[in-house]
Specification:
The complex is a heterodimer of chains A (about 280) and B (about 325). Chain A is an all-alpha fold and about 280 residues long. Chain A has twelve helices and no strands. In chain A, helix 3 packs antiparallel against helix 9 and helix 6 packs antiparallel against helix 9. The longest helix of chain A has about 40 residues. The model of chain A has no long low-confidence stretch (mean pLDDT about 90). Chain B has a two-stranded antiparallel ribbon with strand order 1-2. With about 325 residues, chain B is an all-alpha fold. In chain B, a hairpin with a 4-residue loop joins strand 1 and strand 2. The two termini of chain B are about 55 Å apart. Chains A and B meet through helix 1, helix 3, helix 4, helix 5 and helix 6 of A and helix 2, helix 4, helix 5, helix 6 and helix 8 of B.
């Protein structure tokens, strides 16, 4: 009887701890989102999207960092996606059982979680030092280096899930392998690959560390990618650590914008993935 | 039928030429595409080797000047150009340890809840919520930590800790005041919140990989939920759980922005974990753009080389362990 009681009590304790832990984890999500909404929403006016970053002590908006982030993210995706898709294609289609593939998969997994600040320093060494100045291009390339492993991973996974019978059917009507991949395998894996790109965009739109020493920052409106470019995360970093109330308010608003964008992207990505699963 | 025969008979010569041309073009495109994908795969390797080469190249002046003493010197003085890495290394390791001590048990219990206890209809929403927590950019954790979490700790938690642990010998040094709010402990706690979702989602995936037959057999002989987890699920998934934990550790070691906000950026090793300190990534983020002098810049790059080597080892071990689990589940 005593043994049974101990077992029951131990089990109840474990279940209690599990429920408690889950509540604890979810509490943080709610807390962080609540604080963000509370502090960021009051500053969310039209001016945020139409005016430049202000000098300390006056009102302004976040137009130039928002544009800078959008442009750099766009270029990073433009560079990183084709590279990632092609590499993933090699791993899943041509060299599925290669030595090269297993090495690339291992290295890619390391790159996937490599500290982003190290990637920033790498691009600083390779581009900023060589060009002699900070530039938007360097920032975009640094972000592209982060995009590549995410896209490689999802492309490989999604192509591996495409049933071999589809490939065999394509081959049986005489389709060359490259066409078979482009017309059949890509089409079958499309939703998953789009999910991967969306996740990559979500990942880089909040990245700060790789931009600190590549794109730097810019107080003014600039469309010159060859010069320093402002980005939302770097501006948040600078403004949040400043002693000025106006700047801190803008930092909160910027943080809210980024978080909402990232959450929207990952929810869309998840919906796409779920759709693929159900069909 | 007749039409087809007539048509094919009408232009036999031109068709022959077209066909070989088309075939040739297809063959070219085929091998072109194959090589293109191969080059892309190799580029991924080149990126990694590029990172290593450029970091070694950039840190060469510092490593050359200070030699091995760079690793264990505490001085960090830009004015006299004396640099040592032990304070940031210590900060990185200690903040990550605090984060893992808190996040690992909690993450495992959440995974236990999600795989064994949670009603089916709640499973997906909670899983997604935890993963959304993983998607929030680290700068958001940083700004939240600086303006909300650190003041809260300073006002309510830290004075209480100091009071409680004050009379106890070892703990009184470990938790010595004054309550700054920012510092090693705060950074560790924020990191714990950040790596929690990683550990949770990997552990959940790993727990899900346990064959149901094993669990059902254990339940069948009258085991409680806890006993099934403790004696069936955990032993079966041990390698995978360790892999997931190390993946989280890799994240924590390299995390930059969240830590930079709340660490205090002080280049010293203090006995108290409530004192300000610094980590490798925070030092780089704070000082790199302001660093003048080749030796200063080079020392910062040497720091990032150290960070990269540490995380590389941790992540490689993590992948190796996850691979071993997968091989076992597959077999």
């Amino acid at each position: 009887m005593a043994l049974q009681d101990t077992r029951r009590r131990r089990n109840q304790l474990a279940i209690g701890l599990a429920i408690g832990a889950t509540g604890f984890g979810l509490t943080w999500l709610v807390l962080i989102l609540a604080v963000l909404l509370w502090n960021g929403f009051s500053g969310l006016t039209l001016a945020v999207f139409t005016e430049m970053t202000p000098p300390p002590g006056s009102a302004g908006g976040l137009l130039n960092p928002i544009m800078g982030s959008l442009v750099m993210t766009f270029i990073a995706v433009l560079i990183g996606t084709p590279l990632g898709i092609l590499a993933g294609t090699y791993m899943a289609e041509y060299g599925r059982y290669d030595k090269l593939t297993s090495v690339v998969r291992f290295i890619n997994d390391i790159l996937l979680s490599a500290p982003s600040i190290v990637i920033g320093l790498f691009i600083y060494e390779v581009m900023v030092v060589q060009m002699g100045h900070f530039s938007g291009w360097a920032g975009a390339v640094a972000l592209a280096v982060i995009v590549v492993p995410v896209v490689v991973r999802t492309t490989e996974d999604m192509l591996t899930l495409v049933p071999d019978t589809l490939r065999e059917a394509a081959a049986s009507i005489g389709l060359p392998r490259s066409l078979m991949i482009q017309k059949v395998a890509y089409r079958a894996a499309r939703a998953g690959m789009v999910t991967g790109v969306l996740l990559a965009v979500a990942r880089i739109s909040g990245e700060t560390a790789p931009l600190l020493f590549t794109a730097l920052n810019n107080q003014f409106w600039s469309t010159d990618m060859n010069a320093p470019v402002a980005s939302l995360p770097v501006v948040i970093f600078q403004f949040a650590l400043s002693p000025y109330d106006d700047w801190q308010q803008l930092a909160w608003t910027g943080a809210l914008i980024i978080t909402l964008a990232v959450l929207a992207l990952s929810i869309i990505a998840r919906l796409l993935a779920a759709q693929r699963k159900s069909t | 039928m007749v039409d087809v025969a007539l048509q094919s008979g009408a232009m036999p010569v031109t068709r022959q030429v077209d066909r070989s041309k088309v075939l040739q073009r297809l063959r070219l495109r085929d091998s072109g595409f194959r090589h293109l994908t191969r080059i892309a795969a190799i580029t991924v390797l080149l990126i990694l080797s590029g990172i290593i080469v450029s970091l070694v190249h950039g840190s060469w002046p510092a490593l050359n000047t200070f030699g091995f003493s760079f690793l264990y010197t505490e001085v960090w003085n830009p004015v006299t150009e004396q640099f040592g890495a032990i304070a940031p290394i210590y900060g990185t390791v200690v903040t990550s340890l605090i984060a893992m001590l808190i996040a690992v048990p909690i993450g495992l219990f959440i995974a236990l809840f999600l795989t064994e206890l949670c009603p089916m209809w709640l499973r997906r929403p909670i899983g997604i919520a935890i993963e959304l927590l993983a998607g929030i950019p680290s700068i958001i954790y940083g700004i939240w930590g600086l303006f909300v979490f650190a003041p809260f700790l300073q006002q309510y938690v830290q004075p209480f800790i100091i009071e409680v642990f004050g009379p106890i010998p070892v703990l009184s040094t470990l938790f010595a005041g004054p309550p700054y709010g920012i510092g090693i402990l705060t950074a560790g706690l924020i990191l714990a919140i950040m790596v929690l979702p990683f550990i949770t989602s990997i552990s959940r995936d790993v727990f899900d990989a346990v064959p149901p037959v094993l669990k059902e057999a254990a339940y069948g002989v009258g085991c409680t939920t806890w006993e099934v987890v403790r004696y069936v699920v955990l032993p079966f998934t041990r390698v995978g759980v360790i892999g997931g934990v190390m993946l989280g550790l890799g994240r924590a070691l390299g995390e930059t922005m969240a830590v930079t906000f709340v660490i205090g950026n002080a280049h010293r090793i203090s006995g108290s974990i409530m004192a300000p300190g610094t980590t490798i990534s925070a030092t780089i983020a704070n000082e790199f753009t302001e660093a003048d002098g080749d030796l200063y810049t080079s020392s910062l790059i040497a720091l990032s080389l150290i960070l990269f080597v540490i995380t590389f080892i941790v992540l490689a071990l993590a992948r190796y362990m996850l691979m071993r689990l997968n091989a076992r589940v597959g077999a």
